[in-house]
Amino acid sequence: MHPATAPGGLPLLGHLPAMLARPLAFLDTLPAHGDLVRVRVGPRDLYLVGAPELIRRVLTDRADFDRTGPLYAKIRTFLGNGLASCPHADHQRLRRIVQPAFRHALLPRYAEAMTAETAALTARWQAGRTVDVTREAFTLTTAVAVRTLFSAGLTAEAAERLRHALDVLLRGLYLRVVLPAADLLPTPARREYRRALRAWHAGVAAIIADYRARGVDHGDVLSLLLAARDEDGCPLAERELADQVATLVLAGAETTSSALAWSLRLVAEHPEVERKLHAELDAGPAGEPARWQHLAQLPYTAQVVSEALRLYPPAWAVSRTTTRPLVLGGARLPAGALVVCCLYLLQRRPELFPDPTRFDPDRFAPGAVHRDAYLPFGLGATRCPGDRFGTVEATLALATVAGRWRLRPAAEGPVRPRPRLVLSPGPQPMTPTDRISGPAG
């Protein structure tokens, strides 16, 4: 049996225009055609799955599905053979090395950086002066990622160069994933992307060399990676170090900024949620920056973040390549087929989340269980090891921002998601009002 093909494909281009211009609107049409749908992107076929049982098989069956093929080759030009992009054969060894950087005992120290950076960023805001919340969230989480990774030896200028390069690479990488020919066209965008790639690799290499020369344990993630040894007692090679750093900065910056930006927008659009959130914050941190010790007082704030992650999961599409001919969902797939687990569709299935497009943080009230239906950080052995890091950061940042500021969209109309490797909103200008000294709203 052959899988259903999504309608509306164009000659030669297939569904590429829709995937570039309006990916979410296009994805929303696919469940009507089945749980496994063939999508044509130029000359290539993708097989999108959105059913929980199929996604569980693809993400946990490491023999039949691997992180190989042209797509991951393109991603590795930026991330290298990092934990988020390496084949399964390398994953267990690398995860064993990286995992200690995210153990629970280190989170309070990381939380200090999260609080300090959020307070510093929002202190620069002025009541009535519009800010681009998406850009501000990305600036914040990049600063936190850099500070927790490289707590010493990184100047403000070097950090800004890394942040700018990361922004360019993330915008360009999604285009190269769906349109490989983008690297063949002599455009200004290609030149900018290549400059950013060179700047990224040079910046990371310089940081690693500086740490090695100092020979000091700074108590940060890079120090842990430099000290790590595999089962044979060998340290990470220089290239491996750079690959892990690239992966951790991406995970720490882009995914968390997306969760925060969506949370702030959704709160502003739902007055009842905003009232409940403000009541919790006024009874807890009470206008002060939210800290690690406040987390127990912020259950509703955490629910807001969880619901934003349900509606707009950063890792909205997770792909694997079949290692042999097989049957998935009753359909025959050849070896080398690219299977895309669409977590965006999974977390909007009405039988799993009634009224799925409604923003309702109470879905995640204490005791709620959404096994196999809520997977914003993936599943199985390749689940993101920094999931707790990211949710703590988004929760503290949301609490700190909403405790001080009330935000309102400065322009009418919905936010259009920006096609990137991570599901981030596009520019969203919002106007802050000071909740502490400003008029009550």
Automatic annotation (TrEMBL):
Positions with a binding annotation for heme: 384
Q: Note the Pfam families from the entry.
A: p450
Region span, Disordered: 410-441
Q: Which domain of life is it from?
A: Bacteria
Look up keyword Iron and say if it applies. Answer: yes
| UniProt key word Oxidoreductase | yes
One Gene Ontology MF term: heme binding
- InterPro entries (UniProt xref): Cyt_P450, Cyt_P450_CS, Cyt_P450_E_grp-IV, Cyt_P450_sf, Cytochrome_P450_monoxygenase
Cofactors needed by this protein, per the record, are: heme
Q: Which UniProt keywords apply?
A: Heme, Iron, Metal-binding, Monooxygenase, Oxidoreductase
Q: Which family does it belong to?
A: Belongs to the cytochrome P450 family.
This chain belongs to the protein called Cytochrome P450
